[in-house]
Amino acid sequence: MPVDKRSDNLWLATLGDDTREQLDQLLADLRDERLCPSLVVDLARVRLLTSGNLSQLLRIRQMLIENDVHLRLAGARGEVWTLFTTTGLDKVFQFAADADAAAAALTAKA
Q1: Which of 2, 8, 39, 48 is closest to 22 using CA atoms?
Q2: Torsions phi, psi for 95 (to 5 deg)
Q3: Most buried among 53, 58, 74, 81, using CB within 10 Å?
Q4: Are 41 and 49 in contact (CB under 8 A)?
Q5: Quick check: 72 pLDDT over 90?
Q6: Span between the terminal Cα atoms of the chain, in Å
Q7: 44 Cβ partners below 8 Å, 6+ apart?
Q8: Are 13 and 26 in contact (CB under 8 A)?
Q9: In this predicted structure, what is the pLDDT of residue 107?
Q10: In the prediction, which pLDDT does 36 show?
Q11: Looking at the chain, which runs of residues are DSSP E strands?
């Protein structure tokens, strides 16, 4: 999974088909950083999420909240968006239409 460290304060993680391993790597990367950045997770290429993936995203969210860092999910659509709305997680996470809009929203918060 490519993580684009756009600045000291903003990372963009683009997920693809191997979502479980990519989210595990992202968690490890975030733990290794002394100062967690604001994070955009781009879901545009993800076709399916499992309950395990949702759990991983919730762990990432909790870690970032504990460090007063913002998270925005981007590009969720189709079955992925339906999963968020069905589980009620659309009210837990903040979303943007795409990665650029998410980055702009987080940059404006800083």
Answers
A1: 2
A2: -125, 155
A3: 74
A4: no
A5: yes
A6: 25
A7: 14, 74, 75, 77, 98, 99
A8: yes
A9: 86
A10: 66
A11: 3-5, 10-14, 38-42, 71-74, 95-96
d(CA 99, CA 95): 10
User: Looking at residue 34, what is its pLDDT?
Assistant: 62
Per-residue tokens: 59 = 């762990």
Mean pLDDT of the chain: 91
Sign of CA dihedral 73, 39, 107, 69: positive
Residue 96 dihedral angles phi and psi, to the nearest 5°: -140, 155
Structure tokens at 66: 């504990």
List Cα–Cα distances, 49 to 23, 26, 55, 84, 101, in angstroms.
11, 16, 10, 9, 22
Q: What is the mean pLDDT of residues 42-59?
A: 96
Q: What whole-number distance in Å separates Cα of residue 61 and Cα of residue 40?
A: 11
Judged against a pLDDT cut of 70, whether residue 1 lies above it is answered with no
